[in-house]
Write a structure and sequence with these properties.
Elements lengths: L2 E5 L4 H12 L3 E6 L14 E4 L5 H7 L5 E4 L12 H21 L3 E5 L25 H20 L3 E6 L1 E3 L10 H9 L8 E5 H14 L5 E4 L3 E2 L1 H12 L10 H18 L7 H7 L9 H7 L6 H14 L5 H10 L1
Parallel strand pairs: 1-2, 1-4, 2-3, 4-5, 5-6, 6-9, 7-8
Antiparallel strand pairs: 8-10
Length: 337
């Protein structure tokens, strides 16, 4: 039986990854922090261990007798009063995971990076050969620096590391409404627009991509895990088909966005809640869009992701289950299911 440790096992990707591994017969140990919400792991045959990626001792103990480590334990936050609360767990936490894996004799570590480590395009979709060199917001900086450090340290330690880079991840077992899910739910409910073209992937396919990377990936490589590139009109049409209401399309002019971001940041500095958009994120995107060529994972790993419509429907069903949708949308979804 294959053995694995999953860090960040209670998160959106982590919970689906644990479910995929267990469903395929793996013996899985799930590392979570003491304060973690464990709803995503309810009913799953996994061993829960308490620890933290910033606590090397807890990592080493958790990796005992594990052949594979899936490192999905990093904050998915786009803003914090102290940016280091986003960057440090991602970068230092990854260093700790890799050092513990080396000490524990782990066979391979799969590091969860992000398409944000590749960047945004104004032309053709980007692939794994590109690195995002233009970052100022803490989350984008965290993901790029995390992955770069993982590859560097893997060479220093002579450790087998593979990186996977999910695109816009949607679907079930997201209990907190991630920064990807939240604006998408706003579009589903008519509270916000479809902001820009994007590459969508169901979280179940992200989980499968992690496992395929562990089994078939090439040491030192990075793999974008994504599905369809969808333009604004197509995505708006899919949402209209399954909700009965067409969302707006596109974003306001840049000067309007910057004004909104400035006001939101001021409010967040007082309230402590994350703003929906920041000026640093606008600077990082710089008019580009998240479109990607994900053929490498399909050709080399055998990943076969669901289409965009299935991703939309899956996300709608989860949002309905969580009570995030108005009654009329839920009824329309039931009628078209």
């Amino acid at each position: 039986m294959k053995t694995a440790l999953v860090t960040g096992a209670n998160g959106h990707i982590g919970a689906n990854l644990v479910r995929d591994l267990v469903g395929h017969g793996w013996d899985v140990r799930s590392l979570v922090r003491a304060s973690s919400d464990l709803r995503g792991l309810v009913g799953v045959e996994t061993t829960i261990v308490r620890g933290d990626v910033l606590d090397e001792a807890s990592l080493l103990d958790a990796m005992r007798d594990r052949a594979f480590v899936f490192h999905a334990g990093a904050p998915y936050l786009t803003w914090a009063r102290d940016p280091e609360t986003i960057v440090r767990p991602a970068v230092v936490g990854t260093e700790n995971v890799l050092r513990a894996a080396k000490a524990a004799g782990v066979t391979r570590v799969v590091v969860t990076s992000s398409c944000n480590a590749v960047g945004f395009t104004r032309d053709a979709p980007l692939d794994e050969r590109t690195w995002n060199e233009r970052v100022s917001s803490p989350y984008l900086r965290a993901k790029r620096d995390q992955e770069r450090r993982a590859h560097e340290l893997a060479k220093e330690l002579d450790l087998d590391v593979v990186a996977v880079l999910p695109t816009a991840v949607l679907g079930g077992y997201d209990f907190r409404k991630t920064p990807t899910t939240a604006p998408f739910v706003d579009a589903l409910t008519g509270k916000g627009p479809v902001p820009f073209p994007m590459n969508l992937i169901d979280v179940r396919d992200v989980a499968r991509g992690h496992v395929l990377a562990a089994e078939r990936g090439v040491r030192g490589e990075r793999y974008l895990l994504g599905g369809d590139n969808v333009d604004v009109k197509t995505l708006a049409s899919l949402i209209e088909k399954h909700t009965g209401k067409r969302p707006g399309e596109g974003l306001p002019p840049p000067w309007v966005l910057r004004t909104v971001a400035a006001v939101a940041e001021t409010f967040s500095a007082i309230s402590g809640s994350a703003p929906p958009i920041t000026r640093a994120l606008l600077d990082d995107v710089a008019g580009g869009v998240p479109l990607f060529d994900c053929s490498k994972a399909k050709n080399e790993l055998g990943l076969s992701p669901r289409g965009a419509e299935e991703v939309v429907v899956s996300t709608l069903k989860w949002a309905a289950k969580m009570g995030w949708l108005p009654t009329h949308v839920t009824k329309h979804l039931q009628a078209t299911a």
